Amino acid sequence: MRLRACLGATTFVREDCFSIAHAAGNAYVRSQVPQAEAALAVNDQFAVSAAIPLGAEKIAGRLGTVATSVRLGARAGELGPSISKLSLAKCNRGGGILSNVEEFPAVARRLTEFEALVAAAPTALEAIPGAVYICDKDGWLIRYNSEAATLWGRTPNLGGERERFCGSHRLFLVDGTPLPHEDCPMADAIRSGVATRNTEVVMERPDGSRLTALVNIRALTDHSGNIQGAINCFQDVSAHKAMEEEVLRKGRDLEDFFENGAVGLHIVSSEGIILRANRAELELLGYAPEEYVGRHIAEFHADAPVIGEILHKLASGERLDRCHARLRAKDGSIKHVLVTSNSRFDDGKFMNTRCFTIDVTHLHEAEQARNNSG
């Protein structure tokens, strides 16, 4: 193709690098800076970018063919057929005439993810439902959305003194250990390509307030696998974290209540197997956990009919209140106890019992002694 045939509808950009004039149907392009890149739009459909390593004075005196790295693209975000060279002819005004363009076969190339994100309008990141920011291959923060700025509590300046790896004021691990920006997950992604999935970090704002953020980070590579930058999508999970910690606290309280209660407590399955027993019950009978838990409760009752009736009532949904029973201790002695128990049902199915065991052996022995003395 010959470029001059399209000059009537040609729009030229990057005039900061080239001075451009039209005369007699020819385009005059004068390089303003060495190694400049000219970008031309033809018929509002094609784009030409030419790297011409010539200064203004040299280009004026150069005739003939100049090798370039010119490409012609059909639409935004795509580089199309490669153009091998430009022919320059002398111009009275000291410039050059783009007189001929020779075309190579079309080899389309899509933009990389990083290039597409950087080339997109700044508002593009606002469409993402969450906080997001992008760093380049050197870790410099180059893009972020308003949600990220809100969570950071600050608005990093991308045009002045730039920041690396993160826009937060300070970072910490969830255990409170300070996390320098140069050691954060974003830095790992840029240096080695290591992705981070659903990892919690603590961000501190300039006012000292903190939030727990769930971060997802991955490197952005070119088509050859070279790292061009990285993207971090994160969200504030502080409320969820507080709820989780409250559930854990209540769980610890219940565990402490069960394990360290002042009276014996055990849980028995619907089949009669002891699932758990607390310290007080084990000490009452003298058994180690492995000697008691996992065995059938009837093995420790001295009166088979009594435990049979207890299990039957509990399986029927009845509640036991201070039911007298005799238990065998490890040393062979008999412990007189009062059992208070109820059952847990799930969708009508009997699952297990919860039993409190109170030792009344001394009371029983005192009463027996009083009866014998009378």
- Work out the helicity level: 10-25%
CATH architecture tag of the largest domain: 2-Layer Sandwich
**Amount of beta strand:** 35-45%
Top-tier CATH class of the largest domain? Alpha Beta
CATH H-level superfamily of the largest domain: PAS domain
Low-pLDDT segments: 1-107
Tell me about the largest β-sheet: 6 strands, antiparallel
Would you report the number of β strands?
Answer: 21
Number of helices: 9
What is the approximate shape?
rod-shaped
Going across the biggest sheet, name each strand in turn.
1-4-5-6-8-9
Query: And the CATH topology of the largest domain?
Result: Beta-Lactamase
Along the chain, the helix and strand elements come as EEEEEHEEEEEHEEHEHEEEHEEHHHEEEH
Question: Termini, distance in Å?
Answer: 128 Å
Count of domains: 3
Q: Overall pLDDT, averaged?
A: 77
Secondary structural class? alpha+beta
Whole-angstrom Rg? 40 Å
Structure description:
The protein is an alpha+beta fold and 374 residues long. It folds into three domains: 108 residues, no CATH class; 129 residues, PAS domain (Beta-Lactamase, 2-Layer Sandwich); 117 residues, PAS domain (Beta-Lactamase, 2-Layer Sandwich). Helix content is 23%, strand content 40%. It has nine helices and 21 strands. The strands form five sheets. The protein has a six-stranded antiparallel beta sheet. The longest helix has 23 residues. The relative contact order is 0.06. The N terminus is likely disordered.
